[in-house]
Amino acid sequence: MADAMEAMLLSFLALILEKEWTLSKEQTATIISLVFIGAMVGNLIFGPAGDRLGRRPIFYICSLTIGMFGIATSFVRGYIALILLRFVVGIGLGGLTVPFDILAEFLPTQSRGTYLILINLFWTLGSVLTVLVAYCTIGIGIHWRWFVSICAIPCFISMVFVYLFVPESPHWLVSQGRTDEALKILYRGSLDNRKDPMTLFPPGCRLRSESMENTSSQESNRLVAAPLTYEMNGEKHRSLCAKCLSVCGNISYVVFLLSLTISSHFFC
To answer: Cβ of 119: how many Cβ atoms within 10 Å?
Structure first.
């Protein structure tokens, strides 16, 4: 929802600044396009970083980046500073594919696709909320700087929720060999869902990543299997699919916003 608000506010901000700062059509379009160029850059930066540093810290960094530079936009006084700040906001938006990894790695296989599709409803909710905030601020004469600042608030709220409630992905922890930490998170998740962790993860159970499982199957004559093994799906294909979908989504969305901006010159 927070990322939708930061993207959707461009359709209002570009038209307002076009009149207030006497911007050309090209400058107005650049404000929008640079955000999505930044998002594609963010995909390339934060995707691999999430595999190396973990999902949770990247989620936190992206939310902080969007929130801080979103607020900074409300204090900007010049065009160059504006597009640079919005470009950095776009980089943060590009990293928000990583939270999808966290969600996917916690969901059971049979319902993973359904929930990953349903979560996109929050994008629609964020878009509607942006329109409501615009109506309650610039729609009644309040300066656009307040509108931009309010749209950045959900990013800071998400940071608090990440810090308090979002654990690291057990899948990622297992892939890094940190199986004890992964088990603690799974134990806590079992208790939160009113399940007996000792039944789901009996004493002596061992978590192994897909690569470890493949190795053990090849060396089955020399290795003794653990009492219970939970196979964790590899993240490489999932991360690649998420990046491709995000890039395609960014391209389609920037075309949509640019078409709105261009059409406004003809019909307004």
So the answer is: 13
The single-letter code of the amino acid at 152 is: A
Domain that holds residue 228: 172-232
Instruction: Please enumerate in sequence order all residues whose Cβ is within 8 A of that of 10, keeping only pairs 6 or more positions apart, or say none.
Output: 31, 32, 35, 86, 257
Residue 132 pLDDT level (bands cut at 50, 70, 90): very high
Q: Are residues 221 and 263 in the same domain?
A: no
C-alpha closest to that of 6 among 59, 83, 81, 67: 67
Residues 103 and 159 in one domain: yes
Task: Tell whether 135 and 218 lie within a shared domain.
Answer: no
The answer to whether 149 and 71 are in contact (CB under 8 A) is yes
Instruction: Say if residue 134 is exposed, middle or buried (CB neighbours under 10 Å; 0-12, 13-18, 19+).
Output: buried
pLDDT-above-90 percentage for the chain: 26
Contact of 88 with 69, CB cutoff 8 Å: yes
**Angle of CA points 85, 155, 80, to nearest 5°:** 10
What is residue 158's three-state secondary structure? helix
pLDDT exceeds 60 at position 78: yes
Quick count: other Cβ atoms within 10 Å of Cβ 216? 16
- The verdict on 29 and 104 lying in the same domain is yes
Quick one: which of 147, 212, 200, 138 has its CA closest to 173? 212
List Cβ neighbours of 53 (8 Å cut-off, separation of 6 or more).
none
pLDDT of residue 266: 47
Domains: count for the chain: 2
